[in-house]
Structures are given as structure tokens and as C-alpha cells.
Design a protein that fits this description.
By secondary structure, the protein is mainly α. Helices cover about 70% and strands about 0% of the residues. Helix 10 runs antiparallel to helix 11. About 40% of the residues are buried.
């Protein structure tokens, strides 16, 4: 069937609309930081700074012991349970809508904008698929627009479930930047697939990889936030920074950031694993072999190894804190390198990015 060009324009219009609404969501999340209800700041009674410094010292001491070779799990601060305890990331009994209302008008506006933007984004992806009469991730542009849609929806679910409103400015901000770059730098008009991709395995293999990449997008952003908070905490403990930073005090605790990052990777890793296995089966049907060490295949496997190392080390060796986040960020860097460098600049049997 011929490509529906008019519907392709509709898809792009919805995508631009989503980008604008996401931007308004980021502004509202930032407004909550600046003018919202200072829940953490309200706890700044006499002695709060001393407690902050004590928590920082405890955190640094635990991390230092781990860095010196101690493989035991790092103890949590006095205000939090161990990293694998459910109490560090509570699913509050308050209903979601009530929790959003109680968070203040800025959060209500931010969540509303984010939901409307996600609806427009989803519509853009669906109409793109209808325009080309196939799964809408047959080139890099479509892949990036789809994975950012997955990331936005997945983060909205996690944010509402765990009431981590203050992380919205970071994750949704990253979605806006990524989506904006995709729409301006790698936009590809609707078109037919190359013959090698005209298979039902596109709906299986690439769908799994799109979902997994969108999920991994969220812990990557959270990892940078964690490292920033951890660095500030260590500077406070060393006396090189004053305790009570307004932004840090509004963020979830460092244990909660670690826990949420771990949970999202645990959720996304089986999806990535399935995608790699499905790709191997597709390769056998298309090229007569399951694995040929093609550059894209190789880097997909490296990415799998890095995320597996993160999960294994955290579960068995007690790697928490900075070292664990370095490993998972290295895994995401490997994934991005595969998308932006290997598929574009290195010749191989997976060179279907559509970017010249």
C-alpha cells in the first residue's frame, strides 16, 4: 500500500504538539521547585543541619568502606531502611489523584501537562504507523520518537506510583531535549521499509528493543541525579559545601533514588534480553545464522552484559551507590553508542537507520 503522506503530516503535527506540552510540563515541575510547597524545607527546625551533616557522614563512611573493598551492603541512614527494603520506596496508601492534589497546584499542572503530552505523543506514534502501514520504528527517527514515548509513559507511571514529583523536571526535561533533537536533526519522511526489514519479526524484535530502551532511559537520568546528590552529600561531609541545599532537600532521599533506579532496570532487563533473543532468531531466518558478530549485534550484547553485571553485582556483591550507578550508566552509554554511532557510521548488516 502507498504511504499516506497526509497522515504522516498529522503525525508530525501531533509530535510537535507533544513537544510543546512536555515543555510546559517541565516548566511546571521547575515551578514546583521554585514556588511549590516546601515539604522538605518545612522540616528545617533547629538541629536539622546537624542531622543533615550526620547523614552525610554516615553515607560517605558506608561508601568509603565499599570503595576500600568491603563487599557488604552499605548501611542506610537513620531515616531510611536498607536499600532492598520496601520501606525505602513506599507505595503510599493515599489514592493517586488525592496525592497529586495534595502536592500543590504546580504538581497538578505538571502532571496534567505530562499526561496530555503523552497522549499527543502516543497519537503521533500511532498515526505514523497508520501512515506507513507497519510498526512505526523502521528507522532511527521513528525509533527515537517511539522510545521517548515509552520513557514518558513509564516515568509517569513510576512518578505517580511512588509520588516522586520532583524528579519530573529531570526526566521530562531529558525527554524534551531528546525528542527535540530527533525532530530537528534526524527527521525522516514517511516511507517504505527496505526489503530486509519487511518481516513480522520487526514487530517482535524491534518492539522489544524500543520498549527496553525507553525503560532504560529513565534510570539513566536517575543515575545522573543520584551521582549529583551523592557528590553534594560528600562535599557536605567534607565541609566543602553548606548543608541544606534547597533542590537536594526537595528530591527523594539517596536511598530512594537508588531503589527506584534498581527497580526500573530489573523491569527493563528481561525485555532487552527477549529482544536480543528475538533478533538472533530473526537473523537465522534472514541470514542463515543466529549470531555473526555484526557490529550492532556485538554492541547489543555488550549492553546486555553491562546491565547483567549491574544486576549481578548489586544482588551478590553488595555493589550499591556510586559504583553500581557507574555500571548502569556505562550500559546506557553502550546502548546510545550503538544507536548513534554504530548504526550510522559503521557498515554492517543492520545499517537501516535512515540517517545519511
Amino acid at each position: 500500500m502507498p504511504v499516506n503522506v497526509a497522515l504522516g503530516h498529522v503525525s508530525n503535527a501531533f509530535l510537535i504538539t507533544a513537544l510543546v506540552i512536555y515543555s510546559l510540563s517541565v516548566v511546571a515541575f521547575a515551578g514546583d521547585f521554585a514556588f511549590g510547597r516546601p515539604r522538605r524545607a518545612a522540616a528545617a527546625a533547629p538541629g536539622q543541619q546537624a542531622r543533615d551533616r550526620a547523614a552525610a557522614l554516615a553515607s560517605v563512611g558506608a561508601a568509603g568502606a565499599s570503595a576500600a573493598g568491603d563487599q557488604a551492603p552499605a548501611p542506610a541512614t537513620a531515616s531510611a531502611a536498607p536499600a532492598d527494603d520496601a520501606g525505602t520506596m513506599p507505595e503510599l496508601a493515599v489514592p493517586a489523584l488525592r496525592a497529586i492534589r495534595e502536592a500543590g497546584r504546580w504538581v497538578v499542572a505538571a502532571v496534567a501537562f505530562a499526561m496530555i503530552g503523552a497522549a499527543a505523543h502516543t497519537t503521533a506514534v500511532i498515526t505514523r504507523g497508520l501512515a506507513v502501514h507497519r510498526a512505526p520504528w523502521g528507522n532511527m527517527y521513528e525509533f527515537v520518537t517511539a522510545l521517548t514515548c515509552v520513557a514518558a509513559i513509564f516515568f509517569l507511571f513510576a512518578m505517580i506510583r511512588y509520588r516522586v514529583w520532583t524528579l519530573g523536571v529531570f526526566v521530562m526535561g531529558a525527554v524534551v531535549v531528546t525528542l527535540g533533537l530527533a525532530d530537528t536533526l534526524i527527521y525522516t519522511a514517511p516511507g517504505d521499509l527496505v526489503p530486509a526489514l519487511q518481516s513480522y519479526w520487526l514487530d517482535i524484535h524491534v518492539t522489544a528493543m524500543t520498549l527496553a530502551t525507553g525503560i532504560f532511559f529513565v534510570p539513566a537520568v536517575l543515575g545522573f541525579v543520584y551521582l549529583w546528590v551523592d557528590r553534594y552529600t560528600r562535599r557536605v561531609a567534607a565541609g566543602r559545601a553548606a548543608p541544606g541545599n534547597g533542590i537536594v532537600r526537595r528530591l527523594p532521599s539517596i536511598e530512594q533514588l537508588d531503589r527506584l533506579t534498581y527497580r526500573t532496570i530489573v523491569f527493563g532487563f528481561p525485555v532487552w534480553t527477549f529482544g536480543v533473543i528475538a533478533g538472533a532468531i530473526w537473523a537465522d531466518q534472514a541470514w542463515g545464522r543466529y549470531w555473526g558478530w555484526d557490529p550492532v549485534e556485538t554492541w547489543a550484547f555488550i549492553t546486555w552484559v553491562l546491565y547483567a553485571a549491574f544486576l549481578h553485582a548489586r544482588a551478590t556483591a553488595g555493589w550499591r551507590g556510586r559504583r553500581a550507578h557507574y555500571v548502569q550508566l556505562l550500559g546506557f552509554a553502550s546502548l546510545i553508542f550503538n544507536i548513534l554511532v554504530v548504526q550510522v557510521f559503521i557498515a554492517g548488516m543492520h545499517s537501516y537507520s535512515g540517517v545519511s
